């Protein structure tokens, strides 16, 4: 019997983290959990710590650490840490793979810490590559670690590329469900509230990514991520709306062949592949019900109703610090929308305003990227205050 693979899960209480632990629980002989991290969902983290017995658990602040300590059995041998340094400590702990599933820009520094410590990274935190893709890929190469995609779209591309030469790739086709408002007329968008936007037609995800899927910003972030992961210019990455979410993405080759990866919309398939690569574990996932499907359909995204996708393409092509600004402004605007402080359509306007107001830098230095991120958060917050 082989030695169990040691895992650290950054963001264990979110949708990716809980799905990862579900996979781990199905294969207890294959995995051991070394560290778990969360932000404020202390009750769920406590349940995970009791079930998986990590050596380290990390939360956002001292209040959370005290709450976690109170919810754990006294005889449980686990170290509790907190804050940004705690997350980086978890990323550096001796492990074979770090699952980077923290939400937003907060995941960048722990992911970099994991890479510098020589850990393979299973990446669900797309913001890491959006903000600092060139730097991250350089460090991946320098440290000779593996970066394995967990996003269903990037996992699909990764699988389609297996056994094929990169020189033979013509383009990548990223599929998008189109979100809950795909068929809505633009005049209804101003009245969209958080409750409606959080009802994704196919996927069960956290609040932030669900709103990003509704605006198509999530697909824009994935475009930038794919460019870094697979070394392609953005003019060779195309977004195709596929409402059924059965085809997770495709790769077109220069001879006209197109390869697609299909499956039900369940993140555990992509997670399991990243954890076990190059093997495939017997998840026994349900297959799509082919006979029940009337059709698999496709359409072009409507950039007039979903301008966030166009903004992401523009920022990604320009590069430098603009992708970091795009991401930061979007995070602040989405939070404001969820708090009912701005309208759904104001998300794109806030992001566009931040991109226009920013003086872009080269993005070659981590401090410069972090400074752009901070600037964009302040600018967007002030802009939202003026809107109100």
Number of strands: 11
**Strand ordering within the main sheet:** 4-3-2-1-5-6-7
Q: What does the radius of gyration come to?
A: 20 Å
Shape verdict:
globular
Unreliable runs:
none
What profile does the largest beta sheet have?
Answer: 7 strands, parallel
Encode the helix/strand succession as letters.
Answer: EHEHEHEHEHEHEHEHHHEEEHHHHH
Q: Helical element count?
A: 15
Q: Distance between the terminal alpha carbons, to the nearest Å? A: 62 Å
Mean of pLDDT: 95
Question: Which percent bin holds the helix content?
Answer: 40-55%
> Pairing-aware structural class of the strands and helices?
alpha/beta
Strand content: 5-15%
Would you write up a description of this structure?
The protein is an alpha/beta fold and 388 residues long. It is 46% helix and 15% strand. It contains 15 helices and eleven strands. Strands 4-3-2-1-5-6-7 form a seven-stranded parallel sheet, sandwiched between helices. Strands 9-8-10-11 form a four-stranded mixed sheet, covered by helices on one side. Helix 4 runs parallel beside helix 5 (108-116) and helix 6 packs parallel to helix 10. It is globular, with a radius of gyration of 20 Å. The chain starts with a strand and ends with a helix.
């Amino acid at each position: 019997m082989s030695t169990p693979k040691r895992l650290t899960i950054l963001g264990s209480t979110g949708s990716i983290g809980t799905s990862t632990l579900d996979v781990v629980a199905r294969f207890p002989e294959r995995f051991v959990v070394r560290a778990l991290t969360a932000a404020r969902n202390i009750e769920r983290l406590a349940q995970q710590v009791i079930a998986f017995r990590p050596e380290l658990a990390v939360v956002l602040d001292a209040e959370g650490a005290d709450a976690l300590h109170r919810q754990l059995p006294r005889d449980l041998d686990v170290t509790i840490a907190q804050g940004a340094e705690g997350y980086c400590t978890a990323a550096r702990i001796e492990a074979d793979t770090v699952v980077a599933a923290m939400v937003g820009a907060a995941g960048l520094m722990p992911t970099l810490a994991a890479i510098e410590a020589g850990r393979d990274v299973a990446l669900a935190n797309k913001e890491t590559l959006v903000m600092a893709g060139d730097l991250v890929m350089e460090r991946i190469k320098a440290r000779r670690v593996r970066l394995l995609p967990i996003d269903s779209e990037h996992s699909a591309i990764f699988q389609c590329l297996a056994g094929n030469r990169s020189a033979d790739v013509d383009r990548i086709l990223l599929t998008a469900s189109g979100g809950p408002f795909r068929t809505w007329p633009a005049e209804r968008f101003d009245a969209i509230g958080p409750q409606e936007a959080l009802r994704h037609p196919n996927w069960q995800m956290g609040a932030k990514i669900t709103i990003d899927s509704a605006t198509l910003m999530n697909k824009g972030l994935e475009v930038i991520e794919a460019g870094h992961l697979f070394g392609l210019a953005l003019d060779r990455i195309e977004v195709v709306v596929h409402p059924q979410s059965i085809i997770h993405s495709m790769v077109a080759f220069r001879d006209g062949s197109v390869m697609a990866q299909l499956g039900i919309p369940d993140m555990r398939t992509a997670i399991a592949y990243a954890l076990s690569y190059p093997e495939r574990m017997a998840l026994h996932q349900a297959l799509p019900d082919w006979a029940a499907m009337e059709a698999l359909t496709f359409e072009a995204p409507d950039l007039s109703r979903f301008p966030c996708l166009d903004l992401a393409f523009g920022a990604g092509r320009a590069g430098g610090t603009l992708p970091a600004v795009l991401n930061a402004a979007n995070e602040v605007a989405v939070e404001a929308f969820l708090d009912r402080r701005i309208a759904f359509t104001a998300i794109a306007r806030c992001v566009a305003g931040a991109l226009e107001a920013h003086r872009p830098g080269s993005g070659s230095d981590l401090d410069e990227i972090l400074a752009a991120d901070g600037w964009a958060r302040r600018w967007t917050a002030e802009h939202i205050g003026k809107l109100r």
